Amino acid sequence: MDVVDPARWQFAVTTLSHFPVALLETARVRTLPLLPIRPALVVRGVAFAYRGKRHGRRWWRNGDRCLFWGSLVPAFLWGVVFGTIVRGIALDENREFAGTFWDPLNPFALLGGLTTPALFVTHGVVFPALKTRGRIRRKAKGAAEKRGVVAAVLVVAFLTWAEAAEGSIAGAGMVADFFGREGWAFLGSAVIGLFAALHPEALPSTAGSENGLNIENAASTSKIVQIMTWAAVVFLPLMLVYQSWTYWVFRRRIGVRNIPAGHN
C-alpha cells in the first residue's frame, strides 16, 4: 500500500465531513479535468506491471511512453483542479454554481497545471538525493538544482498571481538544496501552503466575494464537527505513528553497492 494512502483518505474524509457544500460545488468544475485522470492512471499501472514482462526496445519504449503520459496527465490535471479552487468559481447569491462546464480552462488554472508537474518532478529528483549516497546522490542533486529553478519560477508566478506570500517557501527549498540540505528542500517545496492565502474562504466566488463559501457558511453542523474532532484525536496519532514508522524503516541512505549484482 502507498505510504501516503492514509493521508489521502484523511484529507477526503475531513473535506467531505467538514465542508460538504464546498465539495459539492467544486464537483461541478472538477468533472472536466478529472475525467481523463482515471484512464491515465490505469495506463500507468498497466505499464508498471507489464513493461518488464517482455524484452525488446520497442516494448520498453512503448512502456516508457505509457509511464510518462500516465504520470504527466494526472499531475497536470490535478494542478488545473487546484488552480480552479484557488481562483474560485462562479457562485450566485444563493451560493450555487452559476458558471459553465468549461470554467476550469482558464489561464490561472492552466498555470496551476504547469506548476504541479514541475513540483512533482522536483520532488522526484530531490528524494533520491535525500535517500542515496555517492554517485547517485550527486547526479540527483544536480538534477534537483536544475529542475528546482523551473519549479520555483512557476510556483512564484502562481502564488504571485494568487496574491499570496508563500513563494519564499519554495525559494527556501531550492536554496536549501544548493547547500546540501535535501530534507529541508523536500519539505520546503512540499508545504507551499496554497490554501493559506484563502483563509477564511473555503471556496472563493468569481462573481463577487460576498457569494463565496467560507469556513462558516460552508461548514457542517457543530455536532458533526465535534464527532470528526474526536475521530481526529483518535486516528491522527495512529496515522502519524504509521508514517513515522515507515520513515524510520527507510531512514538510511543507500548506494550502488546496495543494488544486487544481477540488477546493475
Describe this structure in words.
This protein has 264 residues and is mainly α. The protein has one domain (20-219). The protein is built from nine helices and two strands, in the order H-H-H-H-H-H-H-H-E-E-H. It has helices spanning 5-18, 20-34, 37-50, 57-87, 107-131, 135-161, 167-178, 182-190, 222-249, and strands spanning 201-203, 213-214. The chain has a two-stranded antiparallel ribbon with strand order 1-2. Helix 1 runs antiparallel to helix 9 (222-249) and helix 2 (20-34) runs antiparallel to helix 4. The longest helix has 31 residues, at 57-87. The chain is globular, with a radius of gyration of 21 Å. It starts with a helix and ends in a 15-residue tail after the last helix. The model is unreliable at 165-169 (pLDDT under 50).
What would a concise description of this structure say?
By secondary structure, the chain is mainly alpha-helical.
- This entry's quaternary arrangement is single chain
* SS-based class: mainly alpha
Rounded mean pLDDT is 72
> Distance N terminus to C terminus?
26 Å
Q: Determine the fraction of residues in helical runs and give it as a percent range.
A: 55-70%
